[in-house]
Design goal:
about 210 residues, mainly alpha, two-stranded antiparallel ribbon, 4 strands
Amino acid sequence: MFIGHFGVGFAGKKFDKSASLGTYFMAAQWVDLIWPILLLLGIEKVQIEPNISVVTPLDFIYYPFTHSLLAAIIWGGLFGLVYFLIKKKLKTAIILCALVVSHWFLDLLVHIPDLSLIPGLDLKVGLGLWNNFIATLIVEGLIFIGGIYLYLKTTKAKNKTGNFALWGLILFLVLIYMGNLFGPPPDSVQAIAIVGNAQWLIILWGYWIDRNRE
């Protein structure tokens, strides 16, 4: 799941307009923003295994501190709490918390059974949509398009930048997604982590978009 998470971020603006799109992106992708850092530190682990599923060559062998259900709930609570302490907006904080936790449930749809409920538990879950290429495209595409639709219904451009920045990001995300689907496997785990950390640029792009829309 990649563009689907950003679709949820786009949709967040529909439910509360006070936070920036960049903040909603950050919440929706939070565990995937932390994960590459833990990869670089050797705390969580992934292997490149072509054909482990139809959609992705990645074997997520150990990532309980970002991608277990309990971890997602804790990260969500912390994210919402920090936002509330800074902004004093309870409704927005709750929505942001929900977006962080939603990441696990969206991953549950697509992952093969590699997601844990709590760290240390042997049971792994995942509905395995990644074993069906067309179904993955349809489900993730619909979430992405639906989120964009809600964002467009909620905001309008204040200037040309507000349009160009938005549609530029949408195109960029689609191109990255197509590259992930049809491109060769990553060269190394380190390359995965470096590219994963580059997602922070997308978060900044979200803030830029929102500054030019109302």
